[in-house]
Amino acid sequence: MNKYEIVKSKLKNSLSYEEYFEEFKMKVMSNDLSILTEFEKENFDYIKLNFQRSSRIHKSFNPSEETKAIISKIKEEQLWVIITEDWCGDSAQCVPYIYEISKLNSLINLRIFKRDLNLELIDLYLTNGTRSIPKLIAFDNSGNELFTWGARPKEANELISKLKAEGKTKNEFIEQLHLWYAKDRGKSITNELLEQILKTIENHN
To answer: Could you give the number of structural domains in the chain?
Structure first.
């Protein structure tokens, strides 16, 4: 099977973003820790913080007229697959923007796959040999792969590389990364997505 056929065969394992976010919310709001895995229990503070980050983005994101105009250029159905996990800080900062942008065109069908339940899928889309998330893959309705994005905006990757080269600890560079996300307010991921969409449209004309 090619990549698209593998994705299609696993769609029954996927969630709508609304289902994913509701599950995310229930996990954070529940007082019953028995519903969590051991990993989730150990990382529960991160998961709660990620929910706050994602919720803030949903409340504050206001797409520009340029963004709306570019997304409206999509004239045929597309399947956008996001591989993610709610404990991932980068996902909390990026996936809400992808979702909000996808909502601007009803021809975009966005589906969420949890990475750790779909290792076969993420292994098709490794980043420098790692299972980094979030990962976005877009297909047309004929199964052609249009573009991929992830696991971070380019500028965020450059920041991490710089901080690692300076000998910063993991906690230090993660703190700086989230400060960068807060300052960027989704501009980088939006611009990178729009650039990919425009390239795809140009290649099909």
So the answer is: 1
Does residue 181 lie within any of the structural domains?
A: no
Q: Which residues contact residue 140 at a Cβ distance below 8 angstroms, ignoring those fewer than 6 apart?
A: 76, 77, 78, 146
Q: What phi and psi values does residue 193 have, to the nearest 5 degrees?
A: -65, -45
Q: Are 39 and 168 in contact (CB under 8 A)?
A: no
Write the burial class of residue 84 (CB in 10 Å: 0-12 exposed, 13-18 middle, 19+ buried).
buried
C-alpha span between 196 and 18 (Å, rounded): 25
CA dist 137 and 109 (Å) reads 12
Is 163 contained in some domain?
Answer: no
Reported as a single tens digit per residue, the pLDDT across 90-128 is 999 999 999 999 999 999 999 999 999 999 999 999 999
* 3 state DSSP class of 85: coil
Distance CA 24, CA 169 (A): 29
Residue 80: phi and psi, rounded to 5, are -105, 120
How many Å apart are CA 145 and CA 171, to the nearest integer? 36
Whether 118 maps to a domain, the answer reads yes
**pTM (predicted TM-score):** 0.95
